[in-house]
Write a structure and sequence with these properties.
GO terms for molecular function: transferase activity. The chain has 367 residues and is an alpha+beta fold. It has ten helices and twelve strands. The protein has a five-stranded antiparallel sheet with strand order 2-1-5-4-3, sandwiched between helices. 21% of the residues are buried.
């Protein structure tokens, strides 16, 4: 039996051990990768780790002892962060959803999780974790599935549709003189244009599912851009756009398929034209094209002052079938992305609504 005197001697040791264990737990929570925020049963914030402070972009220990209302009213909290916190609070606390996913202003994916109820004894534990890597894997898997489905679909429809279209086009051309005599020549032009558009769509399906093997050659970047600008200048003028080709410094040569590279740059310039024509206000449309050397790579840029894109559109921009155009197939940028990756490069894009968009194609240079 432990006497009352011995019990009194053990009590400070137990208290010290309890304090030491709490400190250890806090140290562990402080250094985990997820952001932690704990509110007690009265709604008072009792613990925040450094990862959560970093996400909120607030000074250390500036929130302890406050409530959710005080947190949202903090003058140091940016407007965007306040919106994100408020939406997460509404989704998880008001609507009783255990998780909430969102994208921040830097394009990063986050998952917020709420732990509450009896297991937390009235407290609310918010856990925040960045899931950008998981989303990238998920999108890649989805894209691969889409491309596999696209391959099967395009292979089955190509021969079934192209042969009748070729026959129809031939008969329309034979009937063209008769339609001209009847004063219905415009009908023939419309039919031929629509047949050609259908053929173009089929061609895009085939290209995206089974891109041709690159015919590798040395391509001077200056010659590539000059040729593409020359091809698109008249079309741009008809749409009220100006194309400015920036002078290139030095000889920059890449290795690849000239036709495929031309296809990529043409696609981006035409996208820029459409973005300019879709902008409602009265202004002069400008497309800037150029290239610069960055170490062992060349950066080819195509920028415009068109309608721009929001974050949600940017996030899905290179997905097959995704398009914001009324008559688009959603394959142009997807195919362009695959071509550039096959050439050992990458495409990056930045955009602001009503300010414009900038595409940058990075490719290895031949030294």
């Amino acid at each position: 039996m432990i006497s009352q005197y011995q019990e009194s001697l053990l009590l400070p040791a137990r208290m010290f051990q309890s304090v030491s264990m709490n400190t250890t737990y806090e140290d562990v929570l402080e250094h985990i990768e997820s952001g932690i925020m704990l509110f007690d049963e009265e709604g008072v914030l009792v613990f925040v780790n450094k990862q959560m402070y970093a996400f909120l972009e607030l000074a250390r220990h500036s929130l302890l002892g406050c409530t959710m209302t005080h947190l949202l009213a903090n003058i140091q909290l940016s407007r965007l962060k306040r919106k994100q916190v408020l939406r997460a609070y509404r989704e998880m606390v008001r609507k009783n959803k255990p998780t909430y996913e969102f994208i921040d202003e830097y394009g990063r994916y986050w998952r917020a999780t709420l732990r509450s109820g009896e297991q937390m004894k009235g407290s609310y534990l918010f856990i925040l974790k960045e899931i950008s890597d998981y989303k990238l894997i998920e999108q890649t898997a989805y894209q691969n599935d889409s491309l596999a489905m696209l391959g099967k679909l395009s292979a089955s429809i190509a021969h079934e549709i192209r042969n009748p279209l070729t026959a129809i086009r031939g008969f329309i051309q034979l009937l063209h003189p008769h339609l001209h005599q009847l004063g219905k020549e415009e009908y023939a032009k419309i039919i031929l244009a629509e047949i050609d558009r259908a053929n173009d769509i089929i061609h895009e399906f085939l290209t995206s599912s089974k891109p041709s093997v690159p015919q590798v050659s040395m391509i001077p970047v200056s010659a590539l851009l000059k040729e593409v600008v020359l091809l698109t200048e008249s079309e741009a003028l008809m749409k009220g756009c100006q194309i400015n080709l920036h002078p290139l410094q030095g000889d920059m040569i890449i290795s690849g398929d000239a036709k495929q590279m031309k296809q990529v740059v043409l696609n981006m310039i035409r996208n820029a034209m459409e973005a300019i024509t879709e902008r409602s206000d009265d202004y002069i449309g400008k497309i800037e094209v150029g290239a610069r050397r960055e170490g062992a790579e060349v950066r080819i840029f195509i920028s415009d002052n068109g309608k721009g894109m929001d974050l949600c559109t940017l996030d899905r921009l290179f997905n097959p079938f995704f398009t914001t155009k009324e008559n688009g197939t959603g394959l142009g940028l997807s195919v362009s992305d695959r071509i550039i990756k096959n050439h050992g490069g990458c495409i990056s894009v930045s955009s602001r609504v009503n300010e414009g968009t900038r595409f940058v194609i990075s490719l290895p240079l031949i030294q």
